[in-house]
Amino acid sequence: MADEVRITNADLIVDEGEKVQYIVIKLGNEQYGIDIKYIDNIVRMQSITRVPHVPEYIKGVINLRGEVIPVLNLRLKMGLEEIEDTKASRIIILKLEQYGLLGFIVDEVREVVTLSEVQIEKVAYDNTDEKQKFVFGVGKTESSLISLLDMNVVCAENGK
Amino acid sequence: MDVSQYLEIFLDETREHLSSLNTQILNLEQNPEDEDTINEIFRAAHSLKGMAGTMGFKRMQNLTHDMENVFSEIRNGNMKVSSSLIDILFQTLDALEEYTSNIQETADEGTNDNQNIIDMLNEFLNTKGEVAEEKPKKGKGKAAKEAKEEAPAAENAEAAPSGSSDEEKFRQIPIGETEEGVISAALAEGKNVYGFTVYVDENCLLKAARAFLVYKAVEEKGEIILSNPSAQDIEDEKFDFDFSLIVISEHNIDDILSAARAVSEISKVVGAPLDAVAAKAQEKKDEETEEKETAPAKVEQADKGSTAQAPAAKTNKAAAKPVVNRTVRVDIEKLDVLMNLVSELIIAKNSLVSASYTDGVSGASFNEQIEYLESVTTNLHESVMKVRMVPIESVVSKFPRMIRDLSKKLDKKMELYMSGEETELDRTVVDEIGDPLMHLLRNSADHGLESAEVRAQRGKPEVGSIFLDAYQDGNNVVIEVRDDGNGIDVEAVKNKAIERGIITPEQADNMAEKDIINLLFNAGFSTAKVISDVSGRGVGLDVVKSKIEALSGEVEVHSKLGEGSTWTIRLPLTLAIIQALMVVVGGEKYAISLGSIQTIEDVSPDEIKLVQNEEVMTLRGSVIPIVRLDKALGTTSLKGPDDNLVVAVAKKGEKLAGFVVDELIGQQEIVIKSLGKYINKSKIISGATILGDGEVALIIDANALI
What domains can you pick out in chain B, each with its CATH number? Predict the structure, then answer.
């Protein structure tokens, strides 16, 4: 499983050339990176319409430019505690081939970083840490470490 | 020029012809002597042949050609229609349909020659009747000749081609010196030079396309050296309803005439050898400049003549031809775009309405304008919706043929009775409904109807009846498939379900008859004792159900053992925009389709009774179950236990149920949006809509809760 993930992402990086841009988001104290090619939009928190009988991490649906889009709480999705929305909370709208547009609630959106292949260290699969399975590598910048999320894996766990 | 741009028209027309052939041949089976039917089939086969030929589909052309030959003989009374011929004809149609679908998928007819069918048709020609020596080649000439005879007949005995010189406009084509040189050279070589004037049907919408097909057909037979108007103008549709050609060819004139007439929507083709014209041109030339000056005037005169003549021709035709509605073929995608725009407009209108409440913009004239806007958007929506509606006929017309084939295959006598073919549904629904209906009909034919012996024992008529009835019921369209067969054997279903492990014997004992029957819709369920290729693979009814549910419809079955079954499919008229009742439950707004709501009741809490631990209430004498929407939706009502209940009574088929809501907001036109692929389709929620204030409200599927 982990092997497969690594292979696909290695391919992606090659496809994208040497350097890939990531949006850096915060969940608690940790920083995560999401490949910028998936990002459709980043919006402020807005009222979310609850949908009955869905897993807890699906918070409901919102209206984005006249389309109805499901919104997930990334904290819950990754097995973290849910927190109250703050001023910094945002909904990142991703466009995934398999699911179309999906929104993710994150604590904060920090910046955009450009990482080249040499700055990314692949991580060994560690199944003791739930959120680790969504991470395919760690990007090192001068000041910090960023866990890079494989969004297809994050979303794929729909049945949970 | 390239034919591919006409492929769609070709496909559309081919399907129309094939569907008409199917109907007519079925008809012929009942009335083998009916001349109108025979003529109709001949005409359809002839047009098909011409179209296939023009588009360069040789195999298809050959096959239709042989079919045409057979009908040509039948028409002449040289042969009789027999049931084995009918079978061959149906095989021919199947082969043609195969060509058509190949062409649709790959723009190529494929490589199947269907030689066996051609052989059978030819053998038929050779053995049945005195025309045994008739060879296909000869048949072709004959057919062409008949076409020629037929054309004037269809046109209400118009003047013979050579009769009126007014029609022969080709005589007025100004012939230049170069062309003259070419013509005389061709004549010197012993080739024929013809002039033609082609009249396009005045109701024709794609004149240029027709003209092009004529061009193409004629070019196969010879070389077009001159046309009036020019080829470019014809392509740009810069001509009235006729155009003239001068052609050099080795073929005889009838060949070319019939090739041109084979193109549909060509009302008339006149032509004549042009040596005379050439001579005339020569004369004209001799008569010097004077004549040259008058030539344009002459053309103009002729034009006037033709316009004056046109209305006359029209009245003539009106008597001969059935009135055809003027239609435009529109790509369904364009309609989708239009529908989306209408949806946007309705959302914008709703925003405006809600803004006028909240922002306190008021004033009589403002409200008046809002109301006006509302009525316009509602009408606009209805018109767009109507544009998308097509009669289900296009789907059900193939069923009589299917039942006929099944009847032979299963060796059971049966008859299909259809009504309401004109009932209209959204185009997308009509496209999808064919398969489920086919499954149900096959199911009735195979499982439903008993064998002849059993029917005789039960005192039923030998021939089983299957009914397909469609009708509109409020905001729904109902399609019923009914048979007078065996009905559903509840015990057999129960045993099978237990055997398959779908239910346990204990469960079975507690199940109502109706619930057991509904097990039939379970995946992997088939009670057929023998697996046939008609049905019995167990992939029938569950597919039917899921398909219909995907169309936001539902299917029900009623059955009486020994007397027959009725399958009822209920489909919404439209999928995109509905009238909804807006309600509040637990502080959240929800929409319920107004189509299913019967009444709104104000009920005091002590009117709610418990029956078998289920809440019910009495409504005008009947007891109906109560559904607490707050519980169903996983929320909590904000109302106290002693408050009166607001109950929306909804109907599904024969069943009623009351939905308890906190509050009513009112009626609103809403645009249905999907919840997206990520959220597993929730049974109770059929979609979402965007309210005037930009919030999303979920749409409750009342049917799923009844």
Answer: 3-147 (1.20.120.160), 169-320 (3.30.70.1110), 332-389 (1.10.287), 392-572 (3.30.565.10), 577-705 (2.40.50.180)
**Rounded distance, CA B189 to CA B516, Å?**
84
Residue type, B178: T
Which of the residues B350, B588, B683, B696 would you substitute to probe the A interface, choosing the one with the greatest number of A C-beta atoms within 10 Å?
Answer: B696
Facing residue for B696 by CB, picked from A68, A155, A158: A68
* Contact across the interface for A61 and B675, Cβ inside 8 Å: yes
Name the residue with higher pLDDT: B29 or B583. B583
Cis amide linkage into residue B641, ω under 30° from 0: no
pLDDT value of position B3: 63
Mean pLDDT over all residues of chain B? 77
CB B45 within 8 A of CB B60: no
Structure tokens at A129: 């840490």
**Domain boundary assignment for chain A:** 2-159
The pTM (predicted TM-score) of the whole model is 0.49
Options 2.130.10.10, 1.10.10.10, 2.40.240.10, 2.40.50.180; CATH for A2-159 is: 2.40.50.180
Encoded tokens for B480: 């019923």
d(CA B128, CA B73): 10
pLDDT digits (tens, 9 = 90+) for B296-315: 444 444 444 444 444 444 44
Percent of chain B with pLDDT over 70: 82
| Cβ within 8 Å, pair B679-A53 | no
Q: What residues in A contact B695, CB-CB < 8 Å?
A: 47, 49, 63
More confident position, B658 or B17:
B658
Contact between B682 and A51 using a beta-carbon 8 Å cutoff: yes
Q: Which of B678, B701, B705 to mutate to test the interface with A (most CBs of A within 10 A)?
A: B678
How large is the ipTM?
Answer: 0.81
What per-residue confidence (pLDDT) applies to B662?
A: 93
Q: Residue A67: its chain B contacts at CB < 8 A?
A: 673
A39-98 residues touching B, CB cutoff 8 A? 47, 49-54, 58, 60-63, 66-70, 72, 98
Its sign, for the CA torsion B545, B487, B651, B470, is: positive
What H or E segment, with its residue span, contains residue B400? helix B399-410
* Residues of B identified as active-site: 46, 68, 443
Closest CA–CA distance from residue A75 to any residue of chain B (Å): 18
Residues of B with CB under 8 A from a CB of A: 344, 347, 588, 632-635, 673-680, 682, 684-685, 688, 690, 694-698
The long-range contacts involving A134-138, CB below 8 angstroms and separated by at least 24 positions, are: A134/A78, A135/A32, A136/A5, A136/A6, A136/A9, A137/A6, A137/A9
Q: What is the pLDDT of residues B510-561, one digit of tens each?
A: 888 888 888 888 766 655 544 444 444 445 677 788 888 778 788 888 888 8
- Mean pLDDT lowest among A33-42, B157-166, B565-574: B157-166
A125 in reach of chain B (CB within 8 A):
no
Preferred mutation among B670, B679, B681 to probe A, highest tally of A CBs within 10 A: B679
pLDDT per residue over B376-422, tens digit each?
A: 988 888 888 788 888 888 888 888 888 888 888 888 888 899 998 88
